[in-house]
Amino acid sequence: MAEEVDVEKQHQIDERLGFHRYQEGPEKLGWLVNIQPTTVSSVDKKSTRSAVDLYFLEEDGEYFKCTLAYDPYFYVICKPGTESDVDEYLRRKFERVIQNVVKVQKTDLHQPNHLVEPPRTLLKLMFRNTQEQMQVRRELEPIIRKNKARAQVMDTYTTMLSSRPGGSGARILDPMDCISDMREYDVPYYVRVTIDNSESPHTPESF
């Protein structure tokens, strides 16, 4: 509730400074002079969504502001072929926090042969607000560190098993063991909003 009080207080301050919230009507044109993170209540009033207040200066010297709600997100990289299992597991584990999970195709620029390799399938984890985004990020970070630390040992062990007569490197993995990395988790929220909602919106095909 304190968060909502702060938002209302900021709105009152903006009103006194001449930045009246513009919600509907004819199209307005102005220069963007400031951007600030804020929150808006969900339709059922049971949760909040992250948003930004956009402050504009019109040609005639008048001011106005608009509020844009936008879901924060980051990407999760999984072992190839395990995306569906990880998707299902994350939805169950964070069912009250993750709003949606979407599979996307992107080229991994971290790979030395990324110019010839086909795009990878990533999981795009979407949230209602940055607090819930940070909660999931904090839970996944130690898991990813552990997975990275043992990745080389596991690869060596798998190779040894596969080289033995009748041996196989295949085994059933815990879905959390299949998460190898996170990407774009550290992009500031207001930067994410402005990039994704630019005048010429596009979805980068690489990461």
UniProtKB/TrEMBL annotation:
Q: Which UniProt keywords apply?
A: 4Fe-4S, DNA replication, DNA-binding, DNA-directed DNA polymerase, Iron, Iron-sulfur, Metal-binding, Nucleotidyltransferase, Nucleus, Transferase, Zinc, Zinc-finger
User: According to its record, what are the GO cellular component terms?
Assistant: epsilon DNA polymerase complex
- Provide the species name: Tieghemiomyces parasiticus
Report the enzyme's class at the first EC level: transferase
Q: Which domain of life is it from?
A: Eukaryota
Instruction: List its EC numbers.
Output: 2.7.7.7
Entry cofactors:
[4Fe-4S] cluster
- In UniProt terms, what function does this protein have? DNA polymerase II participates in chromosomal DNA replication.
> Cross-referenced PANTHER family, in alphabetical order?
DNA POLYMERASE EPSILON CATALYTIC SUBUNIT A
- InterPro entries reported for this sequence: POL2, RNaseH-like_sf
Q: Where in the cell is the protein located?
A: Nucleus
Q: Which reaction does it catalyse?
A: DNA(n) + a 2'-deoxyribonucleoside 5'-triphosphate = DNA(n+1) + diphosphate
The keyword Repeat appears for this protein: no
Q: Which family does it belong to?
A: Belongs to the DNA polymerase type-B family.
Q: What is this protein called?
A: DNA polymerase epsilon catalytic subunit
Q: Name one GO molecular function term.
A: zinc ion binding
One GO biological process term = leading strand elongation
